[in-house]
Amino acid sequence: MTSEAHSESGPSATLPLLVRDFVDSQVIPREDALEAGERDSWEALRDRATAAGLWALPLPVEHGGGGLPLADYLALAELEGRSDYGPDALGSACLLTVRMLDAHAQRELRAALVPELVCGRAGSAYAMTEPGVAGSDPAGLRTTAVPDGSGGWIVTGRKWFITGAARADWVLVVARTGADLPVRQAFSILAVPTTAPGFRVVRELDVLGAGGQYEIAFDQVRVPGTHLLGAVGAGMTLAAERLALGRTLRALRWIGQAQRAVEQLARRATARRLGDGYLADRQLIQQLVFESELQVRSARLLATEAGTLVAAGAPARIEVSLAKTAAARALSTAVDAAIQVHGAEGLSTASGLPRLLRTARAARILDGSDEFHVSSTARRLLRDYSDTATMG
What we know:
Helix 4 crosses helix 9 and helix 11 packs across helix 13 (370-391). By secondary structure, the chain is of the alpha+beta class. It folds into 3 domains: 6-93, Butyryl-Coa Dehydrogenase, subunit A, domain 1 (Orthogonal Bundle), CATH 1.10.540; 124-233, Butyryl-CoA Dehydrogenase, subunit A, domain 2 (Beta Barrel), CATH 2.40.110; 237-391, Butyryl-CoA Dehydrogenase, subunit A, domain 3 (Up-down Bundle), CATH 1.20.140. Strand 1 (6-7) and strand 2 form a beta hairpin. It is 51% helix and 17% strand. It is built from 13 helices and 12 strands. The model is unreliable at 1-5 (pLDDT under 50). The protein is globular, with a radius of gyration of 22 Å. The longest helix has 37 residues, at 235-271.
């Protein structure tokens, strides 16, 4: 990417417009083909994003990325997220993995993986969740990595609901490396090549009828010691670093889709004739627009606050949880309202709204269920306010 897209003082004023236009004109019209996994569509979008100077905006410039600082990129994440396929189409979907590798991978591994990921020649997946284990309880994870006696590791276990695992070249695996240690010291993260003997894709899993998630197995997969990220036992610390940014990005992207739904709702209401007027003239329709906009704007403010803290490396557990939950609710409200205003047409795939509805429903579970965030955040707030009152 050239220096025209951003400067030392931040991204240019035109960059948000370019990103939004690319997603709206190039990605959204191809969502059906992208969901079907059509390789030609993905490659065409990568070529067009590269030609437009929009490829891999937040990734290292020395490997072909845009070099955009994280704080500046977060201002674009909502626009990329107007489609679930926007981050992949624009080359920023691997941001979390690249940052983890840059910060914690050994030099040999970093040199082998990062350039390939940034340019789009290789794909990656992140594997933490497992069958039969509550996502909010990492203590239950059973996948293990044991020393092989020659400096490497043998990984055994299963993971599921792993995004894009079938087309990944590498999987970052959270595995137990300390049987009798506390959770914070019991896990490590290893980079496993999907070509390694013993790695296999067990099956594709659907999310409300749509594919793209997978169950994968590690049958005594041997991994060199150089593929360990960070120190032995540091897995949960690394996972927490990734999770804070990951949840913030999800929230911003869901807000992008919620905004898209509000715009679609408004277009329908102002264009649909009803008697001698339009749907938009009806007060109940106006209420749907108002409530949707209220939630979207509120969630955006919360996500912006969380993003500012995360980008600065500041503590942000409460802010991230609030943003994630608010974004999921805003998306649900906006999409439901848009479908209601479209009537029967809103239930058809041609409207694009069922796809957004699927994302909205999954959003209340992904990256921690709403119930988990409500409970954990409430406990922290009660403790913090109690401490403040005691000090006063």
